[in-house]
Amino acid sequence: MEFVQSRNRQFRQAANRPRKNAPDYDSIAGKFTRPLYLAFVTETWRPDINGVAISCGKIVDGLHGLGAKIQLIQPVLESADAEPQYDVRTVGGFRLPFYPDVTAGVSSKQKLAQIWSAERPDLVVIVTEGLLGRSALQVAKKMNIPSITEYHTHFQLYGKHYGVGFMEPVIRRYLRRFHNNSRVTLVPTEEIRQELNKQGYHNVVTLARGVDTELFDPNRRSEQLRRRWGLEPDQLAVIHVGRMAAEKNIQLAVKTFRRIQQVNPRARFILVGDGPLRKQLETENPDFVFCGMQDGEQLAVHYASADLFLFPSMTETFGNVLLEAMASALPVVCFDYAAAKRYVHDHYNGRKVAYGYEPQFITTAMELANNQAVCRSIGNYARVSVMNHGWESIYRKFAGVVEGVVNAEDAA
């Protein structure tokens, strides 16, 4: 017990210790000058369908293509997709009782120490901040292995949706302490980098996310799928893609669509995804089309076959679905923050409203739903505007960050 308390004190002290500013990683070449062995620790991975798993998969695949050897450490409760190109190690995990779709890892210090003592990685990348991630951070620190952490989720904003809003200050402190024990914290937007800097985070680096514009393509539009949705060619398909959960503000999407029906009675609402609120939504809205989880080409076909995208969430750090919808030539309605702040230009390639202003969100969506010519024009510009935001530049910058951290460690 004394050892554990001592390690926890060291963890807190290190988190509060000032460090030098991070170097300009944009100036570092996006390739490896020598073979590197990278250990990724994550609680979500393929076949999970969420922004973290998708982004992590794209980056890991890209780094592997640049010559890195990859080790994956993850909790697995069921059979996972085979990843023969990677050294996959599994640890214990459990399903969150209030969120059974989410798997959390357990603290695994002993197992991680054994794995990394047998073959020491050059760098540990910690993708998620739970018990598994914290134990990985502590073991890496004890073994003097440099680490990078990723900030993907505003967990402190989730509590109010599950009756534990009073925990927000505690969660904020935990996250700051967690990330300040790594060499670099990666965030998806400049807005979040500035926000975390103000909160006392050190060495925060912006690493955006990309979109596969070959996969997400308006040419995948399917009249056959639209007929299955019960639509005629001239009917409006309004779509929402994402987790059906309170923190995603899904009820605003429902309320918005009901108002859209006032100006476009023949419109239909298409919901792609799953989550804890799905059964309730299905019961309350029998006229909605629930498509379940979709990925790959099927997801791309669903986007392309719709006409208007609603993105009501106010808890995102980025929002991959926004770029996927834009690449599919869909006009989007969203709040002005996260990815939308950088990529959406109001009235040109999408519509965005002031953060949290729900009445304006609804009226903006109604305006678009009542003018399909404007919808098509905005959607076409949306597609053009994201064509140069692929994943290659993202994983190459990640490679530059990795190279910079490892080189700094070698020089220390």
The percentage helix is 40-55%
As laid out across the biggest beta sheet, the strand order is 3-2-1-6-7-8-9
Q: CATH homologous superfamily name of the largest domain?
A: Glycogen Phosphorylase B
Briefly note the CATH topology name of the largest domain. Answer: Rossmann fold
Q: Quick check: average pLDDT? A: 90
**Largest sheet entry:** 7 strands, parallel
Residues in β-strands, percent? 15-25%
Report, as a whole number of angstroms, the end-to-end distance: 32 Å
How many DSSP E strands?
15
- Alpha plus pi helix count: 15
For the record, the CATH architecture of the largest domain stands as 3-Layer(aba) Sandwich
Class derived from helix and strand content: alpha/beta
Q: How many structural units, i.e. domains?
A: 2
Rg result: 22 Å
- CATH class of the largest domain reads Alpha Beta
| Secondary-structure element string | HEHEEEEHEHEHEHEHEHEHEHEHEHEHHH
Q: Report low-confidence residues grouped into runs of 5 or more.
A: 1-7, 17-21
In one word, what is the shape?
globular
